[in-house]
Amino acid sequence: MSNGDSDFTALPGHDASAAIRGFFYQINVTIMRWLELPAEYRLELEAGEDIDVVREFFLPGHKRYRALEQIKDLRKNITLRSPEVLAPLGRFLAHQRSNPDFQLEFRYLTTASAGRERPPACDEPLITFWSELREGNRSPESGCFRELRTILAGAARPDGVTDEDWQAFHFSSRPRATKRSLLLFAQCGGTSRSRIMRT
Questions:
Q1: Looking at residues 82-102, what average pLDDT do you find?
Q2: pTM to 2 decimals?
Q3: Residue 118 pLDDT > 90, yes or no?
Q4: What is the DSSP string of 93-145?
Q5: Do 168 and 107 meet the contact criterion of CB atoms below 8 Å apart?
Q6: Which of the four pLDDT bands, split at 50, 70 and 90, describes residue 170?
Q7: Smallest Cα–Cα separation from 184: which of 152, 140, 146?
Q8: Is the dihedral of CA 118, 120, 122, 125 positive or negative?
Q9: Three-state SS for 85?
């Protein structure tokens, strides 16, 4: 008996495997965050970002703490110029502007690999440098930091980021900005690769 649909040509765009894979990855990361959550914190899902870690208590006169984590399952290499990196940075600036009374930390967790800039701007991918800078393993005095700042200052606005947020982005990364503000910006915006591991 023959299959009467063997010559059927399906239209492109209906494959949901990437979306399902992304949901599965986010669910697994959510479980890991819940298992390692300290007693004085709580999780909020799909609030500020995919996962928010919120400190329950704070001292009078201190800002309330919230870590915003965006999770992306990407099967590609990304660089500092990739829209998948730039758009989350713009979102974080919007969060900062909308919540001045909060101490915010931004985490971007992805399965993507860090690619090298072309032409090479550093002896390692700038995303790797940025992540190491957050951990205190790199110096803002290095040439890589200057290259990082130059690329951010000249980056094109990605889709989904407002002009106002992008202007704030450029102000934070332009050459005349103070090194302290640039370092803070880098520490808040780093991208790390993970296989469902803690950043």
A1: 85
A2: 0.74
A3: no
A4: HHHHHH-TTEEEEEEEEESPEEPPPSS--SSS-HHHHHHHHHTT-S-TTSHHH
A5: no
A6: low
A7: 140
A8: positive
A9: helix
